[in-house]
Structures are given as C-alpha cells and as structure tokens.
Amino acid sequence: xxxxxxxxxxxxxxxxxxxxxxxxxSLMTSCNLLWKELSEHFTSMEQNLMKKSEALKQMIxxxxxxxxxxxxxLKHREVTVDHSVEIAAGKADxxxxxxxxxxEKARDIGSNAEDDGEVDDGDGLLSxxxxxxxxxxxxxxxxxxxxxxxxxxxxxxxIPVALVDCVDPPKLVLEAVSExxxxxxxxxxxxxxxxxxxxxxACVVI
Length: 206
What we know:
Pfam families: Frigida. This is FRIGIDA-like protein. By secondary structure, this protein is mostly helical. It is about 75% helix and about 0% strand. It has a domain at about 90-205. The chain has helices spanning about 5-115, 120-135, 140-145, 150-165, 170-175, 200-205. The protein is rod-shaped and about 140 Å long.
C-alpha cells in the first residue's frame, strides 16, 4: 500500500488555488462595477440625446409652422396689395377720364367765360372752375371769381368741388389770393379796377 499524503502538502497545494479564486472574484467584481458605471453613463447619454432630439424636432416643427404662416401672410398681403393697386389704378383712370371730360366740356365754356365773364348755369360754372383748377391757373381763377360777385352762393358751393380736381389746392388758393392778400399788388391803376375795391369777399370764398 502506498503511503497517505501529508496534510501539509495538501495545504500547500490548496492555498494557491484559493488565492487565485479570490483574485478572479475581485477582478469580476471590478468588471461588474465598471460595466455598471459604463451602462449608466451610456444610458444617461442616450436619454440626453433623446431629449435633445425631441427638442430639435419640436423646434423644426415650430419653424415650419412659422414659415408656413409667414408664407400665407405674404400671399395674403400680395393679393391685398395687388387689389389695392388695381383699385388705385381704377380710381386714377376714372379721375383722368373725368378730368379729360371736364376739360373738353369746359374748353369752350371756359374760353367764353374769360371773354365775356358769363356762364350759362351751375354746371357751366363748375366746368369753368374745374378747367382753371386742372390748369393750376391761379390768376385766371382769381379773375374768374372776382368777376362773379353776383353768383356768390354758386361760387361758395362750387369752388370746393372744383378744387378736388386740382393738383395742389393750397398752392392754387394762396397764389390766387396773393393778388390782394396779404399785400395788394394791383397798384394805383391795377387791372382797370380801383384800388379801393374790396375783394375780401373773394378771399373768403376761395
């Protein structure tokens, strides 16, 4: 029979195996901790990326909505502007036609009125006034008015209507009354009228 193994020898053989086991256990524990740390880190990164992606998506949707809204507003404004231009052009054409008609109608009436100082009726008076306003003839306008003191009421109602067709109503009015206001420019022998003639009524009417 062989001799039985020495207990001391068994202890020497078992000791290195236990140390190796502890070393491997410690290594596995470290690996597990590192893996857990890395997993948490990547999970956190993934969540942050998802949040940023969602925020970016919402931002893009908002920008798309704002862009679409802006495009719709621009289209609406374009249509509105085009419509306004058409209306303005139509009004300009109407005024141009009315001015031409007024000039045509007032051509003979205005010439006769300047020659003999008379017009047939209210329409003729208005046509003559419009003709002078359209031509910005301040001196003719003034002479026409002061020659018709007897038609004061008609002048009072027709002059504002005629001035509507004038290019620059304030300028025409100021130039017209400048004959006597603020300084009387007629002189002692002005225009066949006596200097003592009071044309204040004409200034008020104009």
